[in-house]
Each structure stands twice: as C-alpha cells, then as structure tokens.
Amino acid sequence: MRNFAIAAVSSLLLLSACSDADQSVKNDFNSVLERVSQSYFAQRPEIATLYGITDGEAGDGVMSSLSYYDPASEQVRRDALKGMVETLAAVDASALSDGEKLGLRLIETEMRGAHLPAATVSYGSVLGEYGNWFLTYPVSHLSGPHVEIQALLEDKHPLQNTAQAEAFLTRLSAYGVVVDGLIEKVKHDQELGVIAPDFVLNNTINNLKMQLEHSAGDSTLVSSFYTKLAANNVAGADEFREKAILLVNSVFAPATQRLIDVLSAQLAESVHTAGIHRLPNGAALYQALITHMTDTSLTPDDIHNLGLDEVERIHLEMDVLLKQIGLNEAGVGARMQQMLNDPKYIYPSTDEGKAQLIADMRADLAMANERLPQWFGKLPDQEVVIRPVPPHREASGAGAYYDAPSKDGTRPGTYWINLSNVAANPSYGLQTLTYHEANPGHHLQTVLGLSDENHILGTIFYSNSAGEGWGLYAEKLASDMGIYENDPESDIGRLQAELHRAVRLVVDTGMHAKGWSREQAISYSIGVEGIHIDEATAEIERYAVWPGQALGYKLGEIKIGQLRTRAKEMLGDRFDIRTFHDRILENGSLPLNVMEDKIDAWIASQM
C-alpha cells in the first residue's frame, strides 16, 4: 500500500464533467500542492524518508539531507511555513471536488495551527517532532534532532543499494553541523530566558551519555547499517561499515559530547518548575499550543474543569467493575494500586516474560482483526507488526507508539512497545494499549487515511486531536465489539486508560496554567489512576516538554463520540456504523471542526 504520489489528490471524487476553467483550477491546485510539498520537504527532509518519499517526488537531494536548527535556519523554516499557509489560503476552491476541498481545509488548518506558536514567541522550534509539532524546547529527552536523526538512520533510512548507503553516510557526516546549529539555538533561547526544567536537562544528558557507552563498531548506528546492507546484498558493505565507524568516531560522538557539555552548563541556571507559564509570554504560548494540538479555542480553565468531570464519571464506572472482582474498599486509585501490585497481573522481567507479553499482544490483535469487518467497510491492506523498543532507545521512547509504513510497503506499520519496565505494563492493560496503537486504532486509521485519494501533506499535518482522539475512541470501540465480555479485569484496564486521558486534561493545564509542580502532578496521577510511579513520572515529564499535546486524546474522542451519537439519533435505522467509521477516516485526520462539518453533511445526505 502507501502508493500515494506527492501531488496526488482524489480522482474518484472529481465531477464527471468539468469546464475548461474548472479543469484549469484543478491543474493549478495540483501544482500548488506540489510546490508546497517540495517547500516543506526542503525544510524537513527527514519526513520524506519517514514516509518513503523519493527524491524524484520530494526534491533533489532530499534523501541525503538533514534539517538545520541554528537560529537563522529556524527563521527560514518559520518564514517558509508562513508562506505555505498563505499559498494555500489563496487557492480558489470553487471548482474542487468535495474530497479536494476537505484535503485543502485539513492541510491549511493544521499548517496554520502549527505556525501559531511560532507567531506567538521567538523561541522554540517549528516543524519539530513528527514533522509538524512546535517544540518549546529544541532539545529534550523526548524530541529534537539528537533523538530523531538516530532513529531515522537506524530504522527508517532505506539501504537497498549503494546510492542509499552513500546518502546514509552523507547524513551521518552532517550530524556535527546539525548539532552545532542546535547548540546555537539552545544558547539563543537561553538568552531569551528559556531553559528546560532541570529534570528535563538531566534526562536528556543521561540519554545522550548512553549513546556514547559503546565503541563505534558496536554502536547501533553502525550495526544496524551493516546488517541492512548485508541483508540486501549491497556491494561494498564492509567498506561502508568502516566509513560509518570513522564517522561515528569523528563526527557523531564528538558532537554528542559537545551537546552534553552545553546542557550540563545550563543546569546551573535551570529551575525545577515544570510549566511554561514561567516563560516569556508563556500564557499566550500555551493557548496557541492548545489550538495547535486540539483544534479548539477552549481555555485552560475549560479543559481543566472538563477533566475533573470526566475523572468523576469514569471513577463511577470503574467502581462497579472493581466490586465485581472483589475489590470493594478504598478509592478507585487505591484499588487500582492493589491490582498493579498483584503478581498475577505482572509479567516476569525476563526474556521469557517479555516474549510472553509480546505473544499475548499479538493474540489480542488477532482477536480484534477477526471482528473488524463487522465495524468497517474499508479495511487496511497491510498488517501491523509488534516490536519491542530497542534497549538503547528505551529511555527516550514513549511507553508505546506507532510508526506508519513506508510508501512502497518495504517497511511495515510498526507498533513499538517499551519493555524497560514490564511492571508498568500489567496484563489487564495490554489489550487496550494494542487496540489504541494497532487495530482498530492508529494502524487502521493511518493506512486508510494514506490512500491515493489523500495528499501526503494531509498525513504529515494531521490533526493531533482527531488522530489521538481516534486512538482513544478505538479503545472504547473494542468494548462495543464485545472483546471485553466476561473479562472485567481487561475492561477495568480499558477504563483506566480512558481515565488516564481525563487526568491529562487536569495535570497538563495544572502545570502549564495553574502552577502545579512536577511532584504535584505525579502525585495526583498516581492517586487518581493507581498507575506505577515510573509511568506517572514519565508521563508528567512528557507533558512538561510537549505542552498541550496530551489534551488531544480526550477532546478528540469526545467529539467523535458526539458525532456518532448525533448520526445514530438522526438517521435511526438508516445508520450504518461501518459507513460512519469510513466517513470519519477516509480523508485522514481532519481537524475537529472540519470533521464535524463533513459528518453533518453526510447525515443530511442520508435523510
């Protein structure tokens, strides 16, 4: 699958008869999308590799290029993004098909949202994580080129011929220049009064030190490079390996040490305050990030209060199930702690235990896959694979995440599970995690949204709220599918996962708008959810560096649920859940307001 082209737009939805003027507008639209695409990939060439876009489609030299992060390059990127927004806003949509209009609204809305934080403050990095996020801190333990580039080279850069091997080495040789520019940016932001919290700096420094633990020949950069070359019978694999070793020793390792030194020096001026309210124009930045990450103009107070209401509602549902399994006393959080500490739910922290955990996840996925045809008219034509996060990236990786497949299908959609602490993944929560990241969650969502009918920019500039909202909706959908029947423990795990997203509304706004400390947020999460302290700590430290992002899950899920209820009530017997799901997913992760307009129009067309 993934056979989209850079300027591909829906041909299925074109009007059967167009005037010459209309066709001229469509041709111009294709041309605009191609120009905007190439402008984007010139700024973020790594994302072309992530999605398997070739140089012929993305622009000459993209496969061997990297983004640069010095202040001047950052300004170029901001100006380029602003120019893309203005170009798309000027498109005459009158002759476009319905599908093209939706695609245009998606891309323009999300690009505008991505630019909004950059228009609010002069620090931070635009077009950062996942190719479209604004990063308040250019360097953190979770994101930045020091994280992205290593993962790109190890997992995603294709190595099927000598040209691709040379492109790998060209990128690796540029790493030092990238890091030096990043250091310039870090110092630039420091002069503006912006330094990451001390716990973020410490986490980042520790992760960077781990990259230097092994000799160049034993590093995963070199070993993964050589393994792929050998597997693909690329000529000169041994010589390429020696060149990579030389570059790790002469470029990668020294650049990593320089970044460690700069961040270590910043510790003396860093503070422990987690929220961005302390930063210059921090309140306005947080509001901009809410728009960027949730497609709404809700205030922090609105979101905080909604979170408190959702926590109360979900606690009531969990209480019923907890009593069914004999846990009758204490609060919900305390009873979830009892489950968490019950050995029968914990996989052994051994190779055998981890292998069993993966096997159980694969069985859960197979169970869901059998039921998908009853709930979706369109199904993904690619399977998803489940893999553990490599040990050297566990510290900088989330608990679980999904990577889209490559365009040509040579790299599958991958559901990564972090096994650094198996106790943080009790058995009763595994099913829900799998259904969020794989099917009917992100894998199904991504593959269906990445058809030839949708432009690649609509995938890159996806709606965080619609994308993650669908993942949370998919967890609840698994319950609708009957998967949790006669399994109250796993259903409790599902509700705990939903509770986790409601808690995010409370603690994210608590830290960034209400002055909550890191410790206060961790304590609240543990007390309300009953999760492991390691999970709570990792989550809170994630929200500290990605303000607003975690709000999208619950806000998006609520909107999708509201639209489903509205459609069912208005259509009655004419309501088909398969068609509804197809309509939600077929144009990619639409901004919530665009999604609502689309579903309302579909409802009207069925009446």
Count of helical regions:
24
In terms of structural class, how would the helical and strand content be classed?
A: mainly alpha
- Order of strands, widest sheet: 1-3-2
Number of domains: 2
How far apart the termini lie comes to 35 Å
Sequence of secondary-structure elements: HHHHHHHHHHHHHHEEEHHHHHHHHHH
Task: Round the mean pLDDT to the nearest integer and report it.
Answer: 92
Largest sheet: 3 strands, mixed
- Estimate the strand proportion: under 5%
Principal-axis shape:
globular
Q: Report the uncertain regions.
A: 1-19
For the CA atoms, what is the radius of gyration? 24 Å
Helix content: 55-70%
- What is the tally of beta strands? 3
What features would you describe in this structure?
By secondary structure, this protein is mostly helical. It has 2 domains: 254 residues, no CATH class; 276 residues, no CATH class. A 3-stranded mixed beta sheet has the order 1-3-2, with helices on one face. Helix 5 runs antiparallel to helix 11. The chain is globular, with a radius of gyration of 24 Å.
Summarize the model shown.
Helices cover 62% and strands 2% of the residues.
What topology does this entry show?
Layout: H1 20-43, H2 45-50, H3 55-58, H4 71-89, H5 98-120, H6 145-156, H7 162-191, H8 198-210, H9 220-231, H10 237-266, H11 282-294, H12 300-324, H13 332-340, H14 351-371, E1 384-388, E2 400-403, E3 413-417, H15 430-437, H16 442-449, H17 456-460, H18 464-480, H19 488-513, H20 518-529, H21 533-545, H22 552-571, H23 577-585, H24 592-606
Parallel strand pairs: 1-3
Antiparallel strand pairs: 2-3
Helix pairs in contact: 1-4, 4-5, 5-11, 6-7, 6-9, 7-10, 8-10, 9-10, 12-19, 13-20, 14-15, 15-18, 15-19, 18-19, 18-22, 19-20, 20-21, 22-24
